Each structure stands twice: as C-alpha cells, then as structure tokens.
C-alpha cells in the first residue's frame, strides 16, 4: 500500500498563510482551535491568523501546561499570552493540564489531555486545528493521535489540521531541566513495553537538536538498541547546521553510539514529509530483512525542530511506531527573541480532502 500521506495536502510559509486566509474565510467553515497558552512567544500568532480569517466562526480550547515550581518570568509571560488569547477569541476555554502526577514521579499529561477531549463536545465544528507551536510533545502528540483515530472511525468527523511555527532562535533560547528517566508517548508503539517487543531487534532514529544531548543520553543509557541512525537536518536554514550538530554530538556518534558515517540520515529541516518518507522507507526495508526473525522495531525520538518532529509524528501514526522522549520538569528562557518572521507549516491530516480510510 502507498503511504497514507503521500501525497499530503501541506503548505509552508507564505503558501500556508494564504491557505489559512482563503480556506478558513469560507462562510461554511466553523473552526475549533486547540493551542497552548504558555510562555512561548509563538502562542498567539496562529490564533491571530485564524481569527482574521474566520471572525465569529472561531472557538478555542486553550491548554495551559502546568509543571511544578515554574520560572516566575515565564509564568508572567504565560499569563500575558493567555489573556491575549482570551481577548482575541471570546469563545474560548482554558484547560489546565498537569504534566506530572502529584508525587511528580509519573508523566500523566498525555492521558489526561486525551481523556479531557474525549469528554469535550466537538460537534458543530467543520475543522479542528491543532497548533503545536506552544505545546509540548507529551501533550500534542497524544492529542493528535486521538483526533486522527476518531476521524478514522467516526463518519462526518471534522477535518483535522496541524499548524506549527518554526523558529530555531526561539528554540535555542529555551533551557530545560529534564527528568532523569525516559518516557514513551502514550498511544504509540506500546508493544515495545511487552515481552515480545522487548526481544525484537531495535533501530533507534534519534533526531539531533542543539539542546537534545542530555535527553538522548538519558534514553540511550536506559534502553538497549541494536542499531542507531541519527537524523540530521539537511538542507537546513543554517548552512552549517550539520557541521555544528556533528561537532556537538561527536562523542556520542563516534564513541558511545559507535555510528558509522554511512548510517547518518538526512532530512529537510522545514519539510516534515521528507522525514516522514525517509522513516517509512527505512522501516519497510528493515521489516523485510527481519521478517524471518519475527520482525524488528523502529523507535523514534523527535527531539529537534518542530517541523522534523511532525515528520516523525506522521510516520508513527501510520506504522504505530514507539516514540521515546524525556519530559521537561521546568523551563527557563535566557531572553525573549525579538519580533521575527516565523516559518509556518500547515498539514491537513484527515477529512474531506482524502478518500475514506
């Protein structure tokens, strides 16, 4: 079978902004936006675009991620963004989502946000838009998984779209204090935790990012992988992106992971579909090679840019691949980047644009 999202209706940058202006301005579009109301300076940008396109036809669920002992300046930024979003979209609800259990030992955000949306009424909307720009992986990925699953099994379910603002400058300004253990994103490749899954040969595809070294070390130290193929962004907006990442991960690549240069993978930094196709191709070839031995498992760790993380998400949705990451206990931001032109990605995942699955 051909890949589900090849071809995929997608847009980038000016084409994405034009699509939002043209499509959501149609009077028969009733839009439900799901977005983060946190400290990230990107939190209000896409909401503004949608409000301009669909005034009076836009309602929103604002997710306020809560972590213990938050940084006070970032908490003030989050309050400001939440107030701006509520003023922009009067038909909005704010939902506090605790990332951790009460003892702070277990990550519960993914299951809680899915349970919450299972109870929320979605009827009346023609389009659900998930803006992942200011949402964490542990919240956005399970939510998108849930919505795509509902769309596949429910006749007349709203179209599901994903928006993401990309900004390496903003991402680089964020500092994270990580947990000391890895987590699996709920709903993805849960066979990995079974005895059968644990005994299968495992290929790890870690996405390299400037501030992901500690997280990838935590994962590699606590899991056994038979092969490792790191993913690098190429082509990338920065001409030296690959060289800088290879230097930053020099010890891991050559001494810890023992990766041959021929095992490095490359995918376009701003095109999620490029990485999506690459992961599917590798998973298909590896599955055929290990079929006699009972199959293998391809494990993803999308810890780099949001655009490439969306490519990993699409592959994980299609093949039910496990996603392993490390949750942030708290954030800090050395400085807030000034006004800048963000890259914008739009993906239309399910709905009237595609044949019934």
Question: What keywords describe this structure?
Answer:
357 residues, 7-stranded mixed beta sheet, 12 helices, 3-stranded parallel beta sheet, Rossmann fold, 2 domains, alpha/beta, single chain
Please explain how this structure is put together.
The protein is an alpha/beta fold. The protein has 2 domains: 9-173 and 336-350, Rossmann fold (3-Layer(aba) Sandwich); 180-326, Rossmann fold (3-Layer(aba) Sandwich). It has 12 helices and 16 strands. The chain has helices spanning 14-23, 45-53, 72-88, 109-119, 137-153, 168-173, 195-199, 213-222, 241-248, 250-256, 272-289, 306-319, and strands at 9-12, 31-36, 58-66, 92-98, 127-131, 159-166, 174-178, 183-184, 202-206, 227-228, 231-233, 265-267, 297-301, 324-325, 328-333, 343-350. The strands form 5 sheets. It has a 7-stranded mixed beta sheet, sandwiched between helices. A 3-stranded parallel beta sheet has the order 10-9-13. A two-stranded antiparallel ribbon has the order 7-15. Helix 3 links the parallel strand 3 (58-66) and strand 4. Helix 1 (14-23) packs parallel to helix 2, helix 4 runs parallel beside helix 5 (137-153) and helix 11 (272-289) packs parallel to helix 12 (306-319). The longest helix is centred in the last third of the chain and has 18 residues, at 272-289. It is globular.
